[in-house]
Amino acid sequence: MNHYQIVTTAFGYGAVAFSVAPFTLIAVKLPQPDIQRCRQPFEDRLWRLDPSHPRALAIAATLVRYFEGQAIDIPWAEITLGRFTPAQQTVYRSVAQIPYGQTASYGQVAAMAGLPRAARFVGNTMANNPYPVFIPCHRVIRSDGSAGQFGGGIDLKRKMLALEAAA
């Protein structure tokens, strides 16, 4: 059975979803103002609310620190990329290398990943990123400098980029 924790951040209610044995981070849900909307996808799947699992608490605390304006480390030991194709894994690892407070275009990420003509593939991969914040897809922008799309909404993406720029 899968589990989740709700986390209260400076930007609203987010969540971390995880499996217990072995402990693996399944997904991160970006903050939003409505706690019930945050919980609903997990409740629909009959996942168990587990507010006290120590490893999930540590990951949740990392999210809180991020939304307070601190650079964070990626919890690679808890993230499993094996469910993705090798090309997607390479894109996720490339995006994870974009420094805090900086951005890269979809084309630049494609080149970083060794897929120089795959900007659209990078966009599609980012659209399915289950680990936003940890794999910082909000740092990937259009080549013209505009924000582009984001699963948490364009306003949240802009706020996250501004938070990092202010640090």
Give a quick rundown of the structure.
With 167 residues, the protein is an alpha/beta fold. It has six helices and six strands.
Into which percentage range does the β-strand content fall?
Answer: 15-25%
The rounded Rg comes to: 15 Å
CATH architecture of the largest domain: Orthogonal Bundle
Number of E-type strands = 6
Which strand order does the major sheet show?
3-2-1-4
CATH fold assignment of the largest domain = Arc Repressor Mutant, subunit A
Distance between the termini: 39 Å
Overall number of domains? 2
What structural class do you assign from the helix and strand content?
Answer: alpha/beta
**What does the overall shape look like?**
globular
Largest sheet, in brief, is:
4 strands, mixed
Q: Unreliable segments (pLDDT under 50, ≥5 consecutive)?
A: none
Average residue-wise pLDDT: 95
CATH class of the largest domain: Mainly Alpha
Q: What's the CATH superfamily of the largest domain, by name?
A: Winged helix-like DNA-binding domain superfamily/Winged helix DNA-binding domain
Helical coverage, percent range = 25-40%
